[in-house]
Amino acid sequence: MLAQIVLFDGFDPLDVIAPYEVLGAGGVIAGGALEVELVSAEGPREVPSGIGPLSLRATAALDPARAGLVVVPGAAGRLPDGPDDVPEDGVQARLAAAARTGLPALVGEALDRPGVTVATVCGGSLVLALAGLLVGRTATTNHLGLDALAATGAQAVAARVVDDGDLVTAAGVTSGIDLGLYLLERELGPRIAHEAERLFAHERRGTVWRDVGVAPVGRSGAVAGAA
Question: Is the CB of residue 5 less than 8 Å from the CB of residue 37?
Answer without folding.
Answer: yes
